[in-house]
Every structure is written in C-alpha cells, then in structure tokens.
Amino acid sequence: VEVAESGGGLVQPGESLRLSCVGSGFTLSSFVMFWYRRAPGKERELVGYSTTATGITEYGDAVKGRFIISRDHAKNTAYLQMNSLGSEDTAVYYCKPVSEHGPEFGEYWGTGTQVTVSS
User: Fold this and answer.
1) Is the pLDDT of residue 33 over 90?
2) Are 21 and 32 in contact (CB under 8 A)?
3) How far is Cα 117 from Cα 5, in angstroms, rounded to an integer?
4) Are 57 and 64 in contact (CB under 8 A)?
C-alpha cells in the first residue's frame, strides 16, 4: 500500500493550488479521504474529509468556502483544490485514507507535500 501526495509548492497570496493524493494497493472508493495539515510550530489540523458511502464532505472552519475535496476513482486519486490562499495556509499537507469499515480495515498516511504561501 502506498499513498503519495503531490502538487505542493510556493505560491503568492490569493493564488490557487491543487494537491493530489494517489493511492495504490487499495481501492480509494471504499475509503474516507481525510486531508490534514501541519503548520510550523502548530498542531496538526484537520482540513476536511469526504466519504463515498454517504456522500458527505466536510471542511474545517479555516478553509470552508475556499478549499474543495474531490475524487477520481478511475485514477484512485483524491484532490484538494485550494483557492484564495493566504500565508496562514502555509503547511505540510497530508492525505489519510481510512477504510469506511473502520481504521482496523485500513488507515494510511502519505508523506506530505509542502505548501508555502508568500509574496
């Protein structure tokens, strides 16, 4: 099983970025997809999550209205579209698929991708 994030980089305030999370060795459609981030000197923060079974997608207050989680099951890939980025969004971003049957059936972390928002 592998989970790999990509798409991070350096952007200016107000710009957008799309992160990808590609899974292998498991079927993403059967997993809840969580996105987290950790900013320098801060605790890990839940960005949001999406489920296939219930169709629910939720976002943390800090990103609500700016970030969008989506999936392409044919590519076994999830995405995090980030818009109107600000310096407060600078962090390492991680995806974490968790089996919809419970973490004991699969729970995986990616290695993270760095997002830096700076002028």
Assistant:
1) yes
2) no
3) 18
4) no
Sign of the C-alpha dihedral computed for residues 64, 61, 81 and 33 taken in this order: negative
Q: What Cα–Cα distance (Å) separates residue 20 from each residue in 7, 74, 81, 105, 114?
A: 6, 14, 9, 23, 12
> What is the C-alpha separation between 17 and 30, in angstroms, rounded?
26
**CB-CB contact of 8 with 114 (8 Å):** yes
Kindly report the average pLDDT of the chain as a whole number: 96
Instruction: Give the Cα separation of 84 and 105 in Å (integer).
Output: 36
Q: How many residues does the chain have?
A: 119
Report yes or no: 45 and 60 within 8 Å, Cβ to Cβ: yes
pLDDT digits (tens, 9 = 90+) for 87-97: 999 999 999 99
CA distance readout (Å), 13 to 26, 63, 77, 94: 36, 14, 27, 21
